[in-house]
Amino acid sequence: MPRKLSKSRNVYAPASSSSSHSTINLLTPYPQNDGLPPFLTDGLPLPSLVVLDLDYTLWPFYSDCHPWPPLRALSGSVLSDRNGENFSFYKHVPIILHLLQVAGVKLAVASKSPVGDLCREMLKMLRIPGGLPTSVEGFRRSPATKGAAGAADGIGEGDGEEEDRSGKKTKTKGGESSSGSGGGLTNEKGRKTIELFDGGLEIYEGTKLRHFEVIQKRTGIPYEEMLFFDDERPNLEVERVGVTMQLIKDGLDWEELEKGIQKWRANRGIA
User: Fold this and answer.
1) Which residue, 233, 205, 11, 226, is CA-closest to 108?
2) Contacts of residue 188, Cβ cutoff 8 Å, sequence gap at least 6
3) List of long-range contacts for 173-177, beta carbons under 8 Å, 24+ apart
């Protein structure tokens, strides 16, 4: 039996002039570290690639059961289907994805959903909010003023650069330029979420082992350098080839991300 469509409040809602949400609100699990997760600032390695399931991992619904096309964007963070049901990411997902990318971690999707075209459409329509720092340190210095105060309601996007852990600058859609340790801010209109998945999208029925085989060949990244988040226990089979999987209960959040990174480090013998 398919799970009921989640009505949890643990869904993403962007900040606005009438909202209390901001980047620092979305990083509140770590107030003791200037709002930043310690695993991004402790100097220890991060996985080269984070792979994510979709249903009940990035968003709280089954993509093949709950949304009824056509979809329309109520905002950059909320979609509505023909029945008037609304669909969003889990609350912390947009900021987690953005922070992982600016930290130099590649991202990919591995999903067994049989409606790959619909999933890609949703990943294009749901946006990462604009006005975010393009470096990890940018969040540390002034998180209250560099929040996602501008909801990603627009459909335009710009070109820019962002900086990874080593200080290397890379081109990105929807970003402003950054340099040195100062960094910059992403374009106020935000980015299509699908653009963040530079490791590719494997969305089709089959086994997760098959998904990872394709991802590994595409990226050239060893399985041991991959961390996978999924909500279904049978998919732990990917650990047979060296992938670290974090089994999550109700969507990706900061606690699950930290557990996953700590598990990946432990599997690699990193203190």
Assistant:
1) 226
2) 130, 131, 150, 154
3) 174/128, 174/130, 175/134, 176/134
Beta bridge mates, 173: 159
| Residue 65 or residue 167, greater confidence | 65
* Residue 182 C-alpha from the chain's centroid: 23
Residue corresponding to tokens 């993403």 = 12
Nearest CA among 183, 180, 199, 196 for reference residue 243: 199
Phi, psi of 262, deg, nearest 5: -65, -40
Structure tokens at 179: 């340099």
Cβ partners under 8 Å of residue 204, min gap 6? 112, 113, 114, 116
Helix (H) or strand (E) holding 265: helix 254-267
> Is pLDDT of 16 > 90?
no
Least confident of 83-87, 157-161, 193-197: 157-161
Whether 237 contacts 207, CB under 8 Å? yes
Query: Cα–Cα distances in Å, from 94 out to 99, 160, 165, 173, 234?
Result: 9, 19, 19, 16, 26
- pLDDT tens digits, residue range 206-256? 999 999 999 999 999 999 999 999 999 999 999 999 999 999 999 999 999
pLDDT in tens, 67-82: 999 999 999 899 999 9
How far is the C-alpha of 195 from the C-alpha of 191, rounded, in Å?
7
Strands 191-192 and 169-173: unpaired
pLDDT in tens, 100-124: 999 999 999 999 999 999 999 999 9
- Strands (E) located in the chain: 49-52, 72-73, 79-80, 86-87, 106-111, 127-128, 159-163, 169-173, 191-192, 201-203, 226-230, 244-247
Determine the pLDDT at residue 20: 33
